[in-house]
Amino acid sequence: MCTAMTVRNKDFYFGRTLDWDTSFGERAVITPRGFGVRFRMEPPQRMHYAMIGMATVVDGYPLYAEAVNSCGLCAAGLNFPGNAYYSETAEEGNLNLAPYELIPYLLGACADLTQAKAMLQDLNLLAIPFREDIPLTPLHWMIADRSGAVVVESTACGVRIYDDPAGVLTNNPPFGFHLQNLSHYGNLTAAPVKGDFLDESGARSFGLGLGCHGLPGDYSSTSRFVRAAWLLSHRSEMKGESACVAQFFHLLDAVAPVKGSVLTENGKEHYTLYASCFNATRGVLYVRSCNSPTVWAIDLHQREHESEKLIEIEIPQKTEFSFL
Amino acid sequence: MCTAMTVRNKDFYFGRTLDWDTSFGERAVITPRGFGVRFRMEPPQRMHYAMIGMATVVDGYPLYAEAVNSCGLCAAGLNFPGNAYYSETAEEGNLNLAPYELIPYLLGACADLTQAKAMLQDLNLLAIPFREDIPLTPLHWMIADRSGAVVVESTACGVRIYDDPAGVLTNNPPFGFHLQNLSHYGNLTAAPVKGDFLDESGARSFGLGLGCHGLPGDYSSTSRFVRAAWLLSHRSEMKGESACVAQFFHLLDAVAPVKGSVLTENGKEHYTLYASCFNATRGVLYVRSCNSPTVWAIDLHQREHESEKLIEIEIPQKTEFSFL
Amino acid sequence: MCTAMTVRNKDFYFGRTLDWDTSFGERAVITPRGFGVRFRMEPPQRMHYAMIGMATVVDGYPLYAEAVNSCGLCAAGLNFPGNAYYSETAEEGNLNLAPYELIPYLLGACADLTQAKAMLQDLNLLAIPFREDIPLTPLHWMIADRSGAVVVESTACGVRIYDDPAGVLTNNPPFGFHLQNLSHYGNLTAAPVKGDFLDESGARSFGLGLGCHGLPGDYSSTSRFVRAAWLLSHRSEMKGESACVAQFFHLLDAVAPVKGSVLTENGKEHYTLYASCFNATRGVLYVRSCNSPTVWAIDLHQREHESEKLIEIEIPQKTEFSFL
Amino acid sequence: MCTAMTVRNKDFYFGRTLDWDTSFGERAVITPRGFGVRFRMEPPQRMHYAMIGMATVVDGYPLYAEAVNSCGLCAAGLNFPGNAYYSETAEEGNLNLAPYELIPYLLGACADLTQAKAMLQDLNLLAIPFREDIPLTPLHWMIADRSGAVVVESTACGVRIYDDPAGVLTNNPPFGFHLQNLSHYGNLTAAPVKGDFLDESGARSFGLGLGCHGLPGDYSSTSRFVRAAWLLSHRSEMKGESACVAQFFHLLDAVAPVKGSVLTENGKEHYTLYASCFNATRGVLYVRSCNSPTVWAIDLHQREHESEKLIEIEIPQKTEFSFL
User: Fold this and answer.
1) Cα gap C62→C56, rounded to integer Å
2) CA D31 to CA D313: how far, in whole Å?
3) For the domain A2-313, what is the CATH code?
4) Cross-chain Cβ contact D264/C192 below 8 Å
5) Residue B30's beta-bridge partner residues?
6) Which of B220, C121, C175, D206 could pair covalently with C151 via S-S, beta carbons 3.0-4.6 A apart?
7) Chain D within 8 Å of B184 (Cβ-Cβ)?
């Protein structure tokens, strides 16, 4: 379970919750432009855009969950079990990538969504795990910049690229269902409603907020999609970095499962490990850990020239509160 | 619109969102024990417990929205329009208080909920505004300590004190409705469910989180009550102050209206101005403003001896992010 | 479980589903005006209005589930377990009735709702079973005529008479909750809605009927109340007896539990044993058994003079279809 | 709007509601086996199975909305606007049919679903209206017999045949969505639930029926599908023709829009014109008009030898009640 979303204020914001039952050693990782990214079937990118995101680093390779590059192009991978299908054979003339390569390849090579969409036309996702002992993760992706967002799905029916006017991605089922499902909620409104349908009933209205009665509040993939899409399409435009970042985390928090509210089949708690928000325009990653209310910031442009190696930054898991 | 809630971990936490369409100059206010609180019809409390909370200070008097005292007794007033009724005449032998006096009176005089409940037996709430030019606010209250919570309502039917096993309070209608309304949600579970009711259908489950499908996601008073009560009753027990405070804000964020999602009849945005959380055991107030993701802390015990005057502390409305 | 409702077309219609897990020998019963009805604590009615309804007859006494009298006053008793409370002692000067006496007393004595309401002012319902071996049934009642409807509840708080502008009664909880609960559904409409809230999404609308998305479809007491009230307030006015009766059964069928959809704690099927509809203006009872689609009619005025004894009419449990 | 469904008791039943805003002259029509059915692109069926169903007859041709043939194979066409796509050109070697020909062709030629499925493999639906002045109707179809059901859809993606384990069909969107959508309702049960999730709350349960709280009650295509599918999968097995037919109409009535509850964009009432139920095993059509509660029966086998011409039977629009 995860929810990714995009918000356009003066700057462009992109981020996600990462919902799982156990931490996987994720940290902020900057891939500087001189790093040089290698791929299994495609030639390496010696010169590429720098990028920052949340990742684990294995054998010196950044396995990004989500990232933004120095041009403001963003990408996130979300769990898609049972539906993701990766092909067994490379296809000549196509863009043959392992699933874990998709984010660094696109962000390394493309300056914007238009370039990314062009590249994705020929995508062939291969069933190649990063290492023998690391299983393939079933994923689908949201790729976005200020101009819009697309969803990339590789299923038994092949690779499909969908425009995503909602600016949201969650998990199963395939994206087409989610977009269709929004049609159920056309009668919801942010405006107040008359207390009820009986003019003469004398029942007093409960007050504000009844116009969106019917919005689903659970943490299923489909309900998170609807809630996020509805809130995004009704949000105010914010001004100032503090307010924009606060808004983004409010939006994520509206769909982030609180620890205990979702259990796996083994009875483990499935919850939001971290929430991230990129100011894609400025190349800043904001991130907040589950057990700490503080939002930390990391600036790609400030640090991308430090090194030609991956820069790994641990996110504090605890807040030491500063007292007023 | 507002939501108050209580959480018992190792320490006891109490807090609320304050949802309104315009700021009212609220700030953190400490009433030190030597302040001396005056009342309209009741004798002043020269010796009283110190307290901290969010308030506006008018003519040197703390008009608390919510507060905790140095013993860990907590109180919050929430909007209750159309149902709150205050009596016109004081009644001899009763506890005659103006609505704005209820929080300072109880927290000044009572060490715990048992004492507060005893005092509330004779409560008579009077239709006395703080000042001619400040209208009476229609309110009901949650009073709580580690042992439990009660709701105080003064309606046309008189003053009623309800046990609140849910540990939640929102707004209209009267409390009895909210508690009854929970009965609708007995089929919800944090555990996963089989994908659907058709064994043979072949439709794949959407994944985790479907067990609580049916939980309402809107921002009406009743739906916020249900969602908060359900999440509270399914939450994990947390350890460590950072994690406990993070959990409390996660819970508040699940019911806090995002700016734009709720409009008033005049089309103004009604949203969460601030969210507060008391560690009632330690006398610490944590608070977060709408447009700033940072949680600020203020320690009652550290500062209650500074002065015999009200200590007013402004909460920063903006975060200057610190970069890692 | 049961649902009672009222419909005003040119004539006035009143009826109900009777939902239970086992038949109790119900049949149509006419109490002719010369029958003479006896009561435990009140003087007998030697002269009374004739009435017709569904009842069991025990020891020569009509135990009505619902009935209409020759003036068009209607009454129905519905299950109210856990909330109904009957007093142990008769009160001098009050109207002291056993629960099973309420329907025959009111319909015997009152020509209309105004008279009934006046009488109900002094009602004291006594905990007297019809016979030692027949347990007291916990009930509340809807009393109605063309001018309106009231609900009568005797709970631990005493007897309360509520105006019922919805023209609906189901079961628990007390009536006030149901009326308040309607406030949740003020955003529903019979009109179509735009496909969804995303103009640019390109998702096609699913078509008509989405305006009332959010209307609950289950068979709980509260959801049946909402559904019935919403449908009643949006129904067309019908003309002609055939169309009016068809409409009434359509409305009942929208809330009548299909066999198998509701189970008791013992796993027994709880379903609609029969559905009844009175044309109260003309004194006709229409009734349909569970396992037979035919609506049978019985005319009070045609038969009330046949006898001074109760006239019992069995309702066929099976339809022999007539072929066109 | 329409809902079709199948029920397997001792006999096999199939039927539907036909929901529209205006009557189209529908009546029961028997096509005797000697009639001889002609097609635009396919050779005529001189010898074919007899069939009965609801249809309009134009220029001597039966335009069936739904029908069953003498072997028990059933078919119904339901509105599918915006999604139905018919091809412009006939394809050699395929089964080239106009949409209005699909039902008579399949029922004329196939003894069971297996044969029908084989034939449907090569289906090519052509954009040929019955007559210049009769517009093409956008439809999809359910074909069923005792062994199961399939849905036939011709969209811009081509012709697809889906197994339909739910035994239900409504309208938009395409069938795959409906089947997936069922996954949302896996937490619903016919069994009672504990009153609420707060053991200690003291709130009394509202009673039976809360286990399926969350079932949608509106008349959108998707909600009718869910409600019908859930009720079908929880229904009891019935015995005896009267009870089986009564059950079928109860099921249809649970999804049939009551007049006034659904309006078109022009403000016209969209409602159930008629409800039909075939006993497919015995070749009997049961049908009920909107404004009349009586179920009429017509026996295919009794009348198929009367003539070689179409036999048209008007369904009475009014009930003359027979009094007990």
Assistant:
1) 6
2) 12
3) 3.60.60.10
4) yes
5) B52, B311
6) C175
7) yes
Q: What is the pLDDT of residues D126-167, one digit of tens each?
A: 999 999 999 999 999 999 999 999 999 999 999 999 999 999
User: B200: pLDDT confidence band, cut at 50, 70 and 90?
Assistant: very low
Answer whether C160's CB lies under 8 Å from C141's CB.
no
Q: Where do runs of H (alpha helix) occur along D220-262?
A: 221-234, 241-253
Q: Are B187 and D211 a contacting pair at CB < 8 A?
A: yes
Q: Is a pLDDT exceeding 70 seen at residue C195?
A: no
Mean pLDDT by 10 residues, chain A (324 residues): 96 97 92 95 96 97 98 98 95 96 98 98 96 94 98 96 97 95 91 70 70 95 97 95 98 97 94 97 97 96 88 95 88
Rounded to 5 degrees, what are φ and ψ at D32?
A: -70, 160
B186 and D CB contact within 8 Å: yes
Which of D173, D180, D222 lies at the smallest CB-CB distance from A173? D180
Rounded Cα distance, A270 and D30, in Å:
60
| B41 token code pair | 């019809």
pLDDT digits (tens, 9 = 90+) for D77-87: 999 999 999 99
The answer to whether residues B281 and B12 touch, using CB atoms and an 8 Å cutoff, is: yes
Decide if pLDDT at D307 tops 90.
Answer: no
For residue D148, the chain B residues in CB contact (below 8 A) are none
In chain D, domain spans: 2-313
Residues of D in contact with C224 (CB under 8 A): 209
Nearest to B240 by CA among C159, C6, A316: A316
Touching check for B218 and chain A: CB below 8 Å?
Answer: yes
Q: What's the gap in Å between the CA of C236 and the closest CA on chain D?
A: 5
Asked whether the beta carbons of C292 and C13 are under 8 A apart, the reply is no
- Identify which of D192, D230, D291 has the shortest CB distance to residue C246: D291
Q: Does the CB of B136 have a partner CB in chain D at under 8 Å?
A: no
Chain B to chain C Cβ contacts (< 8 Å)? 14
A47 CB within 8 Å of a chain B CB: no
Q: Active site includes B244?
A: no
What pLDDT is attached to residue D35? 95
Per-residue pLDDT, B142: 98
Q: Which residue has the tokens 């819970």?
A: B251
Confidence at residue D200, expressed as pLDDT on a 0 to 100 scale: 47
Question: Across the interface, do B215 and A217 touch by the CB < 8 Å criterion?
Answer: yes
Average pLDDT of chain D, as a whole number: 94
D185 near B CB under 8 A? yes
C188 in B contact zone (CB under 8 Å): no
- Average pLDDT of the residues in D60-67: 97
ipTM confidence: 0.95
**CA distance linking residue C196 with residue A234, whole number of Å:** 13
Task: Give the DSSP H/E element, type plus range, for residue C144.
Answer: strand C139-145
Of B205, B226, B235, the CB nearest to A260: B235
Contact A322, B294 (CB under 8 A): no
- How far away is chain B from the Cα of C20, in angstroms, using its nearest Cα? 21
- In angstroms, the CA B72 to CA B68 distance is 6
Whether C296 has a pLDDT exceeding 70, the answer reads: yes
- Residue B178, H or E segment: helix B175-181
For residue C223, the chain B residue with the least C-alpha distance is: B184
User: How many Cβ contacts (< 8 angstroms) between chains A and C?
Assistant: 112
Contacts of B253 in chain A (CB under 8 A): 250, 253-254, 256
* Mean of all residue pLDDT scores within chain B: 94
Contact residues, chain A, for C185 at CB < 8 Å: 196-197, 213
Beta bridge partner(s), residue A143: A75, A150
Does residue B57 contact residue B303 with C-beta atoms inside 8 Å? Answer: no
